[in-house]
Amino acid sequence: MPSIPNQDFPNNMAVIVPSHISNASRIKLLMTCLDSLLNQVEPTPVYLSISFDAYYLQTIFEKSLKRIYRNNFPELLSIYYRPSKTPQFIHIEKTYELIHEKYDWFLFCDDDDTYKTQRTLVFKFIIFKCITQNSLQKPWAGLYELCDNIPLTAKNQTYEYWSFCVHKNILADFFSKIRRNHGDVLNHTFCDLVFTNYLKQLTDKFTFYPIEQNNYNYITYNNSSITNSIRSKNEKIKNSTIEFASVSELITTLNEEYKKNMDDLLNNVMIYTLHKLDFDNVLKIILRNHYNYKENIDPEIINALEKQHDKIKSLCDDIYNK
Question: Are 89 and 161 in contact (CB under 8 A)?
Fold first, then answer.
């Protein structure tokens, strides 16, 4: 388990922004994001790790920076350019490796979201208050903004990674455990869920202080987050109605539907396995009222789902239970 030392007033806090720019419209969102982070009531260094689909997008971004800041580039902003498309948690890991000796506390922000002006101040104040009052019953690990007033410890409650402010030792422990046997997970869009579930597992031994005030502006258009996307597609698959004249026709149709939606099914397996369900119970949720036909479904489909379950279970056993 990581050890968290006592800290003085946390001036040693930074914000990490992972960003991949796939089209020009996202640059405007990123600039709005950076503006909100650089205009906090409590000034806090911002580290942007960025990659682009094409070089012309990088040129547009750099011109936008020059147009906005002219010759007065923000001292609080550092930018790391990545040479090729980079997954979210690789951005975070690479940035963490470069700056972890400078800072003890890390916040995060998606590149199309924004902070309210007092967000970093609230986090710093509560860290300082908890430390000076010595009011924590368990070792100190971080803070998080409450979602719908539901605590992190609630069963099946899912939090976004940007809800948290975490100590550097927590990040170090997470990356160390992932890299040991499951480094490929850092390349996946669901790594944020693996990370937040990792934090959830630590609540038995560490304190994550809940903040009731929400100072994060989350863009929800087009189900942009992986969790929202998975949830909506999951409902679409589960609630679809299929008319059939015979069992064989049903099985044929189901196989076609499952193969067409295999990526979404695999994501669903991942989510439910993270919630510690065994494979049979995962199938019950995914197949719903067609569960009784599981023996008739194409074995390749079932095998692919079981392989995903075994992979995620192995990951959970390695990083959550040790």
Answer: no
CA 262 to chain centre: 22
Give the H or E element holding residue 236. Answer: helix 226-239
Q: Whole-model pTM? A: 0.86
Cβ-based neighbour number of residue 292 at 10 Å: 8
> What does the DSSP assignment read for 181-198?
H-GGGGGSTTHHHHHHHH
Distance CA 21, CA 153 (A): 34
Q: Which residues of 4-33 are buried (b: 16+ CB within 10 A; e: fewer)?
A: beebeebeebbbbbbbbbeeeebbebbebb
**Is 50 exceeded by the pLDDT of residue 124?**
yes
User: Residue 204 is encoded by which pair of tokens?
Assistant: 């038995």
119 and 207 co-located in one domain? yes
Of 186, 219, 252, which residue is a domain's last?
Answer: 219
* pLDDT of residue 236 exceeding 90: no
* Contact in structure between 153 and 241 (CB atoms under 8 Å): no
Please, what is the Cα angle at 177 between 171 and 178, to 5 degrees? 90
Backbone angles phi, psi at 157, to 5 degrees: -75, 130
Whether residue 29 has pLDDT greater than 70: yes
H or E stretch at 20: strand 13-21
Segment 180-204 shows an average pLDDT of: 92
Put residue 131 in one of left, alpha, beta given phi > 0 → left and psi -120 to 50 → alpha: alpha
The boundaries of the domain holding residue 98 are 13-219
